[in-house]
Specification:
- The chain is of the alpha/beta class.
- The chain has two domains: 121 residues, Response regulator (Rossmann fold), CATH 3.40.50.2300; 96 residues, Winged helix-like DNA-binding domain superfamily/Winged helix DNA-binding domain (Arc Repressor Mutant, subunit A, Orthogonal Bundle), CATH 1.10.10.10.
- It has nine helices and twelve strands.
- It has a five-stranded parallel β-sheet, with helices on both faces. Strands 6-7-8-9 form a four-stranded antiparallel β-sheet, with no helix packed on it. The protein has a three-stranded antiparallel β-sheet with strand order 10-12-11.
- A hairpin with a 3-residue loop joins strand 11 and strand 12.
- Helix 2 packs parallel to helix 3 and helix 6 crosses helix 7.
- It is elongated, with a radius of gyration of 22 Å.
- The relative contact order is 0.09.
- It binds calcium ion (CA).
- Calcium ion binds next to loops.
């Protein structure tokens, strides 16, 4: 299935050129000519990447970037006529993934887009060194037996919740978007909503965590999704007081 790119550019000629060129590259392209239309289009189309002009009518590219980033981990490439360091810093802080300064060649832009797609697809090889029984505080995850135990007693767990946990355990430290988790745990054809992921994470937290409001294992990454981390030794053990110096 062709990937969808949302092109947001108010300059008609440039917008049309980008749409045509990216279609030739094999992408499905949708477009918007101002910031408000861009958000509506983004929500309706759920594109795989957003090309976002900085200077836009209605809502600026910076505003649009901030709003999209609050809703999604989609790769965003900013198009800017200003080649100033300041804009780059502001945009990257808001969560843009890359920058292209006008004027740019389609070839260069297309190479950047492909690089971003590769990056967003790259999911590190799973950690195959995991023991079949993983201890997470009071909970034991029996990967081989597909069971969850709490203080040695089996806990009822939905198969998908278990698969989600196992997937996260095998990719420690790697943040995933809700879409990526849906794709990898529920499968490519699953037509569910990303809210499904939140519901399962909520359930896992209430089972795994001593305090679900400040999770130790499954963390929320703002603007992206979720990541599994093992609490560090330092965080789980009481700090030992240094011996007094003589
Ligand atoms: Ca513009």
């Amino acid at each position: 299935m062709a990937r969808t790119i949302l092109v947001v550019e108010d300059e008609t000629t440039l917008r049309e050129t980008l749409v045509d060129a990216l279609e030739v590259e094999g992408f499905r392209v949708v477009s918007a000519a101002d910031g408000r239309a861009a958000l509506a289009r983004f929500r309706a189309e759920q594109p795989d990447l957003v090309l976002l002009d900085l200077m836009l009518p209605e809502l600026s590219g910076i505003e649009v970037c901030r709003i999209i980033r609050a809703e999604s981990g989609v790769p965003i490439v900013m198009l800017t006529a200003k080649d100033s360091e300041l804009d780059k810093v502001v945009g990257l802080e808001l969560g843009a993934d890359d920058y292209v300064t006008k004027p740019f060649s389609i070839r260069e832009l297309s190479a950047r887009i492909r690089a971003l797609f590769r990056r967003s697809e790259q999911i590190a090889a799973p950690d195959t060194t995991l023991p079949s029984l993983v201890e997470l505080g009071r909970v034991q995850v029996d990967l081989a037996g597909h069971r969850l135990l709490r203080d040695g007693n089996p806990v009822a767990i939905k198969p998908k919740a278990f698969e989600l946990l196992a997937f996260l355990l095998r990719h420690p430290g790697q943040a995933f978007t809700r879409d990526q988790l849906l794709e990898h745990v529920w499968g490519y054809d699953y037509a569910g909503e990303t809210r499904t992921v939140d519901v399962h994470v909520h359930w896992l937290r209430s089972t795994l965590e001593d305090d679900a409001s400040s999770p130790q294992f499954i963390h929320t990454v703002r603007g992206v999704g979720y990541v599994f981390r093992r609490p560090t030794e330092v965080a789980t053990r009481r700090p030992r007081r240094a011996p007094p110096r003589r």
